[in-house]
Amino acid sequence: MPRHIPEPTVISAAGNMPKIIQEYVGRVNSQTESISIARMKSPSGWIEPGQQPEFDEFTIVLAGVLHVRSADGSVIRVAAGEAVMVSRGEWVQYSTPEAEGAEYFAVCVPAFSPETVHRDPA
Fold it and tell me: Which domains does the chain have, with CATH numbers?
């Protein structure tokens, strides 16, 4: 039977300033471990610690620009209407340094969890 999810749960975000994470599907809002789907709103100047997660992450940018830095120091600039895929085990760091920040959806398989994201020490 289909399951209606009437609203997301707001999740605390890592990083140097507040960011809005609205989890629609995942370990918190729907008790789903196989996948998480969350809408993110990151302000200009936001940056989170690097991470080496145990999940694949697929990100679709709706507005603004998301920067994705890899272990070799290269940065992919992902603009509105574009997507980026990061495989589990890869080191990555997300940021929104441009003036408009970014709004995007992130899909993690299996679902995101604080125990499996493996963020760099602060």
Answer: 9-117 (2.60.120.10)
